[in-house]
Structure formats: C-alpha cells, structure tokens
Amino acid sequence: MDVVDDRLVIRPYRGSPFAVHGTIEGRQVSAETVDTSLVVSELLLQRALAFVEANATFVLPDYDLEYPACVDGDGPEVALTMMRSLDRVTSMRFQPWA
Questions:
Q1: Confidence band, pLDDT 50/70/90 cuts, at residue 75
Q2: DSSP assignment of 10-78, as one string?
Q3: Measured in whole angstroms, how far is the alpha carbon of residue 64 from the centre of its chain?
Q4: Residue 39: partners with Cβ closer than 8 Å, 6 or more residues away
Q5: Cβ atoms 88, 23 nearer than 8 A
Q6: Where are the domains of the chain?
Q7: Which helix (H) or strand (E) holds 2?
Q8: Does residue 3 register a pLDDT over 70?
Q9: When comparing pLDDT for 56 and 94, which is higher?
Q10: Which sign does the torsion angle of CA 85, 89, 90, 95 carry?
Q11: Which residues pair with 10 in a beta bridge?
Q12: HSE toward the beta carbon, residue 30, CA cutoff 13 A
C-alpha cells in the first residue's frame, strides 16, 4: 500500500468508478477510484475494516440483492462500505454497475 496526500492507495481496484466524501468525528475523509486504484483516507479505511470484521451486509430488498461489506470487491460493495462508514456523507459520485 502506498501513501499519497495522507491517503492510502490500494491496488488493484477492479470495480466501477466512484467517489465518496464526508466526515468521521468531524474530520474530512474520502474514498475514490483513480485508474485501477482505490485512494482512501486512513481513518475511513479503519472504519470500513471494522464493518468488514463485523460481517456487515447491505441488503437491497427491492432487487433481492445482498452485498457483504468489503474494501476489495469488484461490484458496488466497496462504495457501499465506504459510504456506510461515514458519519456524514457530503458528496458522492457513482457510475452504474454492470
């Protein structure tokens, strides 16, 4: 893992592009895809990993879908995990998943 501008770079990222920005305990954090990498604030990654360790899931009952919390998947689960890990979402950008 590399560090760029106080954020961690996780390679490779195989999912659809996204960006989420928000706060945790009043601190600005973000996660976004850059080419084939996920660039994420350390505090946000720590919080996301807590959801992974807790075996959290995201259920979309209208579509009969369930996604596990993760930081290295190839579908919407990484973006959902990052978004859920924020205390407050200030902005988000997603591309449709196939």
A1: confident
A2: ES---S--EEEEEEETTEEEEEEEETTEEEEEHHHHHHHHHHHHTT-EEEEGGGTEEEE--SS-SSTHH
A3: 22
A4: 4, 7, 8, 9, 10, 30, 31, 32, 33
A5: yes
A6: 2-93
A7: strand 2-4
A8: no
A9: 56
A10: positive
A11: 38
A12: 17
